[in-house]
Structures are given as structure tokens and as C-alpha cells.
Amino acid sequence: MEKNQLQSEKTEIERKYKQLLAEYDNLKKRLDQMQAENSKKQKLQDQFNQDIDELGRETDSLVEEIEKWQT
């Protein structure tokens, strides 16, 4: 009887372990996807900031040219 009890507990623990492994794998995949998405968004944000800076420099240059023509 005790051997059957131990075997039953072992089987249950193994089942739970496999379930936890599957859950871990799913969470790891989701984390990897979220990190990739975050990286993509960061690259877009960096490009946007670079474009804004470039437009600011171009605007400053145009203002300087306009001021030269006005004097």
C-alpha cells in the first residue's frame, strides 16, 4: 500500500513538474517576444528623435539664411 502511495505521489509530482516546465517555456517565449517588440519600439523612438534633431538643425540653418537676406 505504501509503495502505491509513493508511486502515486511521484507520478503527481512529475506531472506538476512537466506542467511547470511548459508554463516556464511559454513565459520565456512571451518575454522574448516582448523584449523584441520593446527593442523595435526603442529603435523607432531613436530614429524619430534623430529625425526631430535633424529637422531642428535644418530649421536653424534656414532661419540663419533668412536673417542674412534680411540684413
Descriptors:
71 residues; mainly alpha
Describe this structure in words.
The chain has 71 residues and is an all-alpha fold. It has one domain (1-71). It is built from one helix and no strands. It has one helix spanning 2-70. The longest helix has 69 residues, at 2-70. The mean pLDDT is 95.
Radius of gyration: 30 Å
Total number of helical segments? 1
Termini, distance in Å? 104 Å
Helix and strand composition category = mainly alpha
**Number of separate domains:** 1
State the order of secondary-structure elements, H for helix, E for strand: H
The proportion of strand residues reads under 5%
Shape: rod-shaped
Estimated helix fraction: over 70%
Rounded average pLDDT: 95
| Major sheet characteristics | none
Count of β-strands: 0
* Low confidence ranges: none
Quaternary form: single chain
Structure, briefly:
With 71 residues, this protein is mainly α. 97% of the residues lie in helices and 0% in strands. It is built from 1 helix and no strands.
Summarize the SSE layout with pairings.
Elements: H1 2-70
